[in-house]
Every structure is written in structure tokens, then in C-alpha cells.
């Protein structure tokens, strides 16, 4: 990794936290902040702005897990969660919540670096896929709006589809706007006027 990571370690057991912090530092991560209480965690995460969050839960109960799943959804950062025991439902909930790495059987020093790298890589991949999905949905919605605008022009002006598209494109060029924006304006105006 090119630049040093800013890591936030969350562990309510101070002794375990110091061992994990030592392991992180031995793995070459000097920028480690340790939090031993979860009260106000989201605000602290926003203030510290970590690149990755490491959560170590010895024997988590459902409330603790749900709290961290909510944190994961809220902060949109790579999160590696280490637990000593788990069940299938908890693993599925962690994945749904966006936890990047959910590791059962605790945390050992020698596993820290590859797990952090995997968590960051997975988080980046999922984020990229989410962006691509949002872009695809936006493009599809814009395409539908353009098709609707072409239909309106074809109906009102009694022209074919090609001529309607050329008319939209010319209006977009003349107004220095995107064709999707011109189409949206036309559809909006048409809806306001009704079928008049």
C-alpha cells in the first residue's frame, strides 16, 4: 500500500486492544487510533476520518452486532470485524450491513495485514459496483425520458422518431444543455399542460 493507512481500532477490552494495536504497528501501520467505548462512535469516526475500521468483539451479543452493523451502514468505510464466535445469520447480517471482512475465530497478529488489505479491496469493489449500478439506473431513466420526449414530439408535431430525436438534439445544442435535460423539461412542460 502506497500511503500509510489511518486505522481506527474499536475494542472494549483494553488489554486486547493494546495487543491488536501492537500487531497493527508491527504490520507497518503507525497511524492507529484506539476506541474502547462505543458511545458516540459514529461522531468519533467522522472526526478521526479513518481509512479502515477494525472492530474486535470477543463474544458479541445481537445488540452489539446490530449496533456495529448500523455504524457500518452510516460511515461508509471499510470495516473488518473480528469475532470469536458467530452463526450464519450474523454473517449474513454483517454482509448485508456492508462489513467488508467478517472474521470468526478472533484476531491474530499475523492475520491483520492480509485481512485489512482484503477488507479495503472488497469495500472498494462493492463501492465501485454500487456507483456503476447507480449510473446505469440513471442512464436508463434518462433514456426513458428521452424516449418519452420523442413520443411527445412525434404526437404533437406529427413527425417520425428520427426527426423527433434531431429536434431534441438541436434544442440541446442551441441551449448548451444535455439532451436528457432538454427531454426532461419537455416532458415536464407537457405534463403540466396535459394533452392540450
TrEMBL record:
SUPFAM superfamilies, per database record: CheY-like
4-aspartylphosphate sites (modified residues): 56
Pfam families (UniProt xref): ANTAR, Response_reg
InterPro entries: ANTAR (IPR005561), CheY-like_superfamily (IPR011006), Sig_transdc_resp-reg_antiterm (IPR008327), Sig_transdc_resp-reg_receiver (IPR001789), WH-like_DNA-bd_sf (IPR036388)
Alphabetical keyword list: Phosphoprotein
Response regulatory domain boundaries: 6-120
The keyword Phosphoprotein is annotated on this UniProt entry: yes
SMART domains from the UniProt entry: ANTAR, REC
Span of domain ANTAR: 126-187
The keyword Phosphoprotein is annotated on this UniProt entry: yes
Secretion signal span: none
PANTHER family assigned: PTHR43367, TWO-COMPONENT RESPONSE REGULATOR-LIKE APRR6-RELATED
Name of protein: ANTAR domain-containing protein
Organism for this UniProt entry: Jiella sonneratiae
Amino acid at each position: 500500500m502506497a500511503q500509510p493507512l489511518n486505522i481506527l481500532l474499536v475494542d472494549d477490552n483494553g488489554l486486547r486492544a493494546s495487543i491488536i494495536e501492537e500487531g497493527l504497528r508491527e504490520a507497518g501501520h503507525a497511524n492507529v487510533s484506539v476506541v474502547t467505548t462505543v458511545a458516540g462512535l459514529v461522531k468519533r469516526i467522522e472526526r478521526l476520518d479513518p481509512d479502515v475500521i477494525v472492530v474486535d468483539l470477543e463474544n458479541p451479543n445481537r445488540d452489539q452486532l446490530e449496533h456495529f452493523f448500523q455504524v457500518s451502514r452510516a460511515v461508509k468505510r471499510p470495516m473488518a470485524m473480528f469475532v470469536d464466535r458467530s452463526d450464519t445469520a450474523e454473517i449474513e447480517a454483517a454482509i448485508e450491513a456492508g462489513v467488508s471482512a467478517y472474521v470468526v475465530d478472533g484476531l491474530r497478529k499475523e492475520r491483520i495485514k492480509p485481512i485489512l488489505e482484503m477488507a479495503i479491496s472488497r469495500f472498494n469493489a462493492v463501492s465501485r459496483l454500487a456507483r456503476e449500478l447507480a449510473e446505469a439506473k440513471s442512464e436508463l431513466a434518462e433514456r426513458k425520458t428521452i424516449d418519452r420526449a420523442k413520443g411527445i414530439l412525434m404526437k404533437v408535431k406529427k413527425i417520425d422518431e428520427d426527426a423527433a430525436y434531431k429536434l431534441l438534439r438541436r434544442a440541446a445544442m442551441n441551449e448548451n444543455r444535455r439532451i436528457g435535460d432538454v427531454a426532461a423539461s419537455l416532458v415536464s412542460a407537457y405534463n403540466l399542460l396535459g394533452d392540450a
